[in-house]
Design brief:
The protein is α+β, with helices and mostly antiparallel strands. Helices cover about 45% and strands about 15% of the residues. The protein has one domain: 3-Layer(aba) Sandwich (NADH Oxidase). It has seven helices and four strands; from the N terminus they run H-H-E-H-H-E-H-E-H-E-H. A four-stranded antiparallel sheet has the order 1-2-4-3. It is globular. It starts with a helix and ends in a 5-residue tail after the last helix.
Amino acid sequence: MEFFEVLEARRSIRAFADKPVESEKWHKILDSANRAPSAGNLQAYEIFEVRRRRTLEALARAAFDQEFVAQAQAALVFCAHPSRSARKYGNRGVSLYCVQDATIACAYAQLAATALGLACVWVGAFDDDAVREAIGVGQQLVPVAILPIGYAAEAPEATARRSISELVHVIE
């Protein structure tokens, strides 16, 4: 898919087909996330690939019972790694750069999944501690996003967006 077609095709999918995702596609998604830019090239984030049904169900509960999380073939959990960023950037790295790094990596994974004909939805509503418990990590990591991925079992229409003139403020 051409880049701008990918942007137009991306939808938030909350219903997944019971169809396995090919390993080559997983590799391309993870490679895309790994290519995302990061502050100081520190890649101050970690990605957890969750395939086990029991863990997907725990993530769904952690995401305030958003059951579609457990329907996906897998989910990627993006966690900021504040101490990794703090080494070079201090408090700014802890409070912002590591979160930006994880967010950009998730966005790259989301667009890669779309380009590969897969479906996903960005999940940001969850209990941080419940996500940490589900994936087995401590307080040193900060969950930023859950990205359930699979083949779509729905085809929603595009949602309305703000107009460019409303969204963009030109400073001259």
